[in-house]
Each structure stands twice: as structure tokens, then as C-alpha cells.
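Morning, I've got a small favour to ask if you have a moment. You're getting the sequence in one-letter code plus the fold written as C-alpha cells. Thanks so much in advance, here it is:

===
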Amino acid sequence: MDTMRDRFTTTVTRLLDEDPRLALVLAEISRDRLEDAEHRHPDRVINVGIREQLLIGTGAGLALAGLRPIVHTFASFLVERPFEQIKLDFGHQGVGGVLVSAGGSYDWPAGGFTHMSPGDVALLDTLDGWTVHVPGHPDEAETLIRHAVAAGDNKVYVRLSQQSNTEGLAVDGARFLTVREGNGGVVIAVGPMLDAVLAAVEGLDVTVLYASTVRPFDAATLRRAAAKSPHVVIVEPYLEGTSNAAAGAALQSVPHRVLGLGVARRELRRYGDMSEHLAAHGLDPASLRERISAFLPVPASA
């Protein structure tokens, strides 16, 4: 199976052929995978080199000129390093674009902490009007990238990861999907955490919602699911607690409990591999089962 990043490069190459309003801005990362696109559209594929502030500024400038920019690099260099430019060049100037990241929270541990970005979604939460997609499978990545490109002049962040669920679902860029129903609580699995969540809650009487789009937050679906039991666990592949406030706002009219599980704030100073980072942050199925079972008032089935 190809990765989300593989699917991004093939999809954006096709989109550049299909849509003359589309432009792609790179900062070296993935340039080798996009050589065909660069050769076919040298006027709309721009590589600024390792200059991430310029990357964002160029994308916003293209938007001001009437194009729909896709801006791409690793998440830590796309959101964290040039955050001021995102805030001012896109937000303050009132223009839209599509930011597509790679690397996730710890996809490449050997790259060290400079290449890890567990706080990217939380950081974008400080800004107004961003749609955030977190696909859990390459098929979903293609769907959501196409959705983002077609989303008028909106500001959209698509967070890609090496981590993937076994199967893609029919995501629509808006709603949470109900994967299974239960009576003892609600577990929201975000993007590539779905497989681990389903393994963790086997035998538990809980509803599982799948979120591949987390901003705007689908409050209506959560309210319906939590009507039976307003005990909510959110399992996110980035900083723990990122969506707690959004869930709390959705349930503000009823007593409720929310537990956010995700990447811990502590820095892991060993490389390891992605699976070891998942386990260290308590996001492997066994750890998730223990933490979810301790929080929800639902005994395991016999």
C-alpha cells in the first residue's frame, strides 16, 4: 500500500493538470517526488528552498494574485517554524490556501525533535477559520486533499502521517462517522488512531466515532452519540487534550466527562521507531484499553 505522502504527490500532480488556478509551493521536501509536476507546470510549481517563512509568504502571495496555493513540507516546518507568517500572511490578509504536512508527531524519530510536531493542531486552534483534516488512510488523504483544493478560498490544513489504518472509510470532509454503537460511553478516534482504538475497545459497550476532520468539530454527531452516556474519550495522534475544549463546548448543556488521550507533553529523548513512540505515549492498543477502561463506566463483556 502506498503512504499518505505518496498519495499526496500523485494526487497533486493530477490536480495541477486539471485546475489551472492551482499552484504548488515547496521547501525542498518531496521535490524529488514531484519532478513530473514541476516539468509540466514550471510556472505553478515553485521551490523556495529551505526557507519556511518564505514558503508561507509565497503561498499567501499567490492567493492574493487569485491562485489556489498548496503549500507543503514537514509539519514542524510548515506550522511551527513559520507560524507568524500563517497568522499574518493568510489570516490577517484574509486569503485562503491549503497547507499539507508530512511527518506527523513522530513519523521519523531518527530526525529528532526538530522533525516532530505534536502541537501543530493545537497551535492552529489559536487562529480563526482553519479547517483541519486528519486522514487515517491514503484513500482518505486523496479525498480530503481534493476536498480542500475545491473548498473555495478557505484556509485548510491537511495533516498526513506515515501511520495508517488498514482500510479507508467514506469520509466527507465534515462529519464524524459512527463506526459502532454502544451504551456506556463514546470514544472518538482521530485519523490513524482508529485501528488501535477498535482493538482497544473490543468487548466494551461503547460507541466509536471516527473523525478525519476535526475542525470544524462535529458537535452535533457527538451530542447524539453522548445522549446515552456523556463519558467521552478522544484519542488523537497529536498533543493530548487538543480537542477537549471543543468536546466540552459541544456538551455544555449536559453534565459530562472528557478524557483526552494523545501525545504527552514530555519530550522523549530516544529515537526508537514509531511503534515505540506510540507505546511510550500510551497510544498502543493495550495501553489504550487500560486507560479507556479506567475512565469509562463500562465493564468488559464476558
